[in-house]
């Protein structure tokens, strides 16, 4: 029944059903493998889709590899941006997508593509945003370094106290939006760095969007771009700035 609904939606509206937005910065070591795995997954689906690679000014061979790959696969689109941060890349990727639903998807493949369907099922149940969570009881986390785990817990306490309550994992790189919520939220987004996830959830509260947190299975990648201390302190600064903007009615 769910697949039939997806097919009918695509036929009636003649639109792309799902856009997968992948922010990239110097991902030459793994971007082709990520795209290969996504293609295998989508080859088994019955809906229209696109992948938007939103490149944040890579200085390695990421762009060349994606361009070569996209020549064989017209569903792949490359968005070239000056280097300003992950939030900047996600913002532009979301606003340059065409899907009825738009999924933020990290290039490191720490979540298997097979879990995409769970996001789609959830978001069609009267949700505006569905966020993946590594910290719910049903979630599975593998190989997470102890320092990252401890910093994550401390950061979540900070978020609960000073930003937005009710979410156990604001920083997971897998979030799904309706086209309407994506266009509202990412037009409003001002944070271009790592703190954009919290900003987006704060804005969801601000404009009364329905957000659900969903458990995922997540596997830590050894070459993750996240630098625990520098990234955490940068996010804290950006979150406090977002709080000031909200209180000052600057959104």
Overview of the molecule:
This protein has 251 residues and is an alpha/beta fold. 44% of the residues lie in helices and 18% in strands. The protein has 9 helices and 9 strands. The strands form 2 sheets. The chain has a 7-stranded mixed sheet. Strand 1, helix 2 (31-42) and strand 2 form a beta-alpha-beta unit. Helix 6 (146-162) packs parallel to helix 9. The longest helix has 20 residues, at 228-247. It is globular.
- The CATH architecture can be given as Alpha-Beta Complex
Structural domain count: 1
Question: What proportion of the residues is helical, as a percent range?
Answer: 40-55%
Corresponding CATH superfamily: Spore Coat Polysaccharide Biosynthesis Protein SpsA, Chain A
- SSE topology string: HEHEHEHEHEEHEHHEEH
CATH class: Alpha Beta
**Low-confidence region ranges:** none
Q: How are the strands of the largest sheet arranged? A: 3-2-1-4-7-5-8
Indicate the proportion of strand residues. Answer: 15-25%
Shape verdict: globular
Overall pLDDT, averaged?
A: 89
What is Rg?
A: 17 Å
- In DSSP terms (H or I, runs of 4 or more residues), the helix count works out at 9
Q: What distance lies between the first and last C-alpha atoms, to the nearest angstrom?
A: 40 Å
| CATH-assigned fold name | Spore Coat Polysaccharide Biosynthesis Protein SpsA, Chain A
Number-wise, the strands total 9
């Amino acid at each position: 029944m769910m697949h039939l609904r997806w097919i009918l939606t695509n036929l009636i509206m003649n639109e792309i059903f799902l856009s997968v937005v992948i922010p990239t910065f110097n991902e030459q070591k793994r971007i082709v493998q990520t795209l290969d795995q996504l293609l295998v997954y989508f080859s088994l689906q019955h809906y229209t889709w696109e992948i938007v690679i939103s490149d944040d000014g890579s200085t390695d061979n990421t762009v060349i590899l994606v361009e070569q790959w996209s020549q064989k696969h017209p569903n792949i689109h490359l968005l070239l941006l000056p280097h300003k941060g992950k939030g900047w890349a996600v913002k532009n990727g979301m606003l340059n997508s065409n899907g009825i639903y738009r999924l933020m998807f990290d290039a490191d493949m720490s979540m298997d593509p097979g879990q995409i369907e769970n996001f789609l099922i959830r978001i069609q149940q009267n949700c505006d945003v569905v966020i993946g969570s590594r910290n719910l009881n049903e979630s599975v986390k593998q190989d997470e370094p102890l320092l990252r785990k401890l910093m994550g817990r401390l950061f979540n306490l900070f978020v609960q106290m000073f930003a937005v309550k009710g979410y156990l994992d604001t920083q997971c790189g897998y979030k799904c939006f309706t086209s309407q919520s994506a266009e509202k939220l990412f037009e409003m987004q001002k944070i271009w760095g790592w703190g954009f996830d919290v900003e987006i959830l704060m804005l969801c509260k601000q404009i009364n969007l329905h957000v659900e947190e969903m458990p995922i299975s997540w596997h830590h990648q050894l070459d993750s771009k996240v630098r625990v201390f520098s990234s955490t302190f940068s996010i804290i600064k950006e979150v406090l700035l977002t709080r000031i903007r909200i209180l000052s009615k600057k959104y």
